[in-house]
């Protein structure tokens, strides 16, 4: 299955090796600085297994040894960390308004990046443009000597759960696009793992996988940009991204919140996107696609109708957050996407609505942690790179 981040049960010795390797890598990723003995204690693996797997991972440039630390009366052990110096993953986002690319290392640091604000045209031309930018990025001094693990591409629409095909990008007008095949036809791109996923899934994955410290049990990432989508990730050593029968999990922008309301790009009426999305706000305010929406809102901030429009969009966002809370109940909500540039005007009514209602059902005074990413330019691209690492970790 594409985009599965769990070792596949083939029932042979390779499966067991993959399971041990990826469990150890995940343990160090979530708790950097553990010694071999700590890892054995944490995972339940024998010290001998941990020793040989760690040795191989150090040799292959996945782990590095750090400081010596003594614990109790036993032999001192070397702290282990993911090695940020030898590999990199490429991540790219084909966004409705442009292309974003990163090269990042095993600890999630962005080593090189590129952002071209120019709306994609047709899939083939876009693949050629992306390939050119990727090849240029690979020449960056910070990565030119490193080994590339592969390429993850994030796209603005649902991806088929059974094959890496973009089923539909309603805001680009693309249908059933095998984008990786178009990319493969371009010269000079690196080998390795190639993955395709929905941009909100990729962003959610990156926020979960590269979470500083032990991540919450599950997170939902709401991507509020030209369109609005959501990705959900949960799990421990092996992150799980629910996709649904047709890859539609998280397509919250097309949940109907105003029956009979305005016409949506999907053809239905009253979808959430008709109230809170970059395209709907641009249409309502007559802002061209290549002009800045946040600058236009700022310039007209004194107009009562503009204030009402953004207030209503914020409340719709809060309503979507509440619906997620009551359907998927994630341990943490993360808000990202270009609409975050509208800042408090949009975010405050969203948070106010959510916080006023999040405990209505259980009548408990609990508060779901909410993180807001003000600049999520590279969040989805970095997440796509994280997916490559997670897949490579089960195949090294
Ligand atoms: Zn719709």
Explain what the structure shows.
The protein is of the alpha/beta class and 396 residues long. It folds into 3 domains: 13-82, Arc Repressor Mutant, subunit A (Orthogonal Bundle), CATH 1.10.10; 87-205 and 379-395, 2-Layer Sandwich (Nucleotidyltransferase, domain 5); 213-372, ATPase, nucleotide binding domain (Nucleotidyltransferase, domain 5), CATH 3.30.420.40. The protein contains 11 helices and 13 strands. It has helices spanning 13-30, 36-43, 47-59, 123-137, 179-184, 199-209, 278-285, 293-299, 304-327, 344-357, 379-395, and strands at 63-69, 77-82, 87-94, 99-104, 110-116, 147-155, 166-169, 174-177, 193-198, 218-224, 228-234, 332-336, 370-372. A 5-stranded mixed beta sheet has the order 5-4-3-6-9, with helices on both faces. Strands 11-10-12-13 form a 4-stranded mixed beta sheet, with helices on one face. Strands 1-2 form a two-stranded antiparallel sheet. Helix 10 (344-357) links the parallel strand 12 (332-336) and strand 13 (370-372). Helix 1 crosses helix 3, helix 1 packs across helix 11 and helix 2 crosses helix 3 (47-59). The chain is globular, with a radius of gyration of 22 Å. It starts with 12 loop residues before the first helix and ends with a helix. The structure holds zinc ion. Keywords: Transferase. Residues 47-112 form the TRAM domain. It holds the Pfam family ROK. GO terms for molecular function: DNA-binding transcription factor activity; transferase activity. This is Transcriptional regulator.
């Amino acid at each position: 299955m594409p985009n599965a981040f769990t070792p596949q049960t083939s029932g042979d010795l390779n499966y067991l090796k993959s399971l041990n390797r990826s469990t150890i890598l995940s343990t160090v990723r979530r708790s950097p600085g553990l010694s071999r003995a700590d890892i054995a204690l944490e995972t339940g693996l024998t010290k001998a297994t941990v020793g040989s797997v760690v040795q191989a991972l150090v040799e292959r440039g996945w782990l590095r040894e750090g400081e010596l630390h003594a614990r109790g009366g036993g032999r001192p052990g070397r702290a282990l960390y993911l090695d940020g110096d030898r590999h990199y993953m490429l991540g790219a986002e084909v966004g409705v308004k442009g292309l974003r690319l990163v090269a990042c290392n095993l600890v999630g640091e962005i080593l090189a990046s590129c952002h071209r604000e120019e709306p994609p045209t047709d899939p083939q031309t876009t693949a050629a443009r992306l390939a050119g930018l990727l090849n240029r990025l690979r020449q960056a001094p910070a990565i030119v000597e490193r080994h590339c693990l592969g390429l993850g591409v994030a796209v603005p629409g649902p991806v088929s759960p059974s094959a890496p095909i973009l089923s539909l990008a309603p805001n680009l007008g693309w249908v059933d696009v095998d984008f990786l095949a178009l990319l493969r036809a371009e010269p000079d791109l690196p080998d390795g793992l190639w993955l395709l996923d929905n941009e909100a899934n990729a962003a959610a994955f990156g926020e979960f996988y590269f979470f500083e410290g032990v991540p919450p049990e599950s997170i939902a990432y709401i991507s509020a940009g030209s369109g609005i989508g959501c990705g959900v990730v949960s799990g421990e050593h092996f992150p799980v991204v629910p996709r649904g029968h047709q890859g539609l999990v998280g397509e919250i922008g097309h949940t109907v919140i105003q029956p009979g309301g305005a016409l949506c790009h999907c053809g239905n009426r009253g979808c959430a996107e008709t109230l809170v999305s970059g395209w709907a706000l641009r249409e309502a305010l007559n802002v061209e696609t290549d002009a800045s929406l946040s600058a236009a809102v700022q310039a007209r901030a004194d107009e009562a109708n503009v204030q009402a429009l953004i207030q209503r969009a914020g409340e719709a966002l809060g309503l979507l957050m509440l619906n997620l809370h009551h359907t998927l109940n994630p341990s943490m909500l993360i808000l990202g996407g270009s609409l975050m540039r509208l800042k408090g005007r949009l975010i405050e009514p969203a948070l106010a609505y959510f916080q006023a209602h999040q405990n209505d059902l259980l009548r408990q005074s609990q508060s779901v942690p909410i993180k807001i990413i003000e600049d999520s330019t590279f969040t989805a691209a970095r997440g796509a790179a994280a997916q490559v690492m997670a897949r490579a970790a089960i195949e090294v």
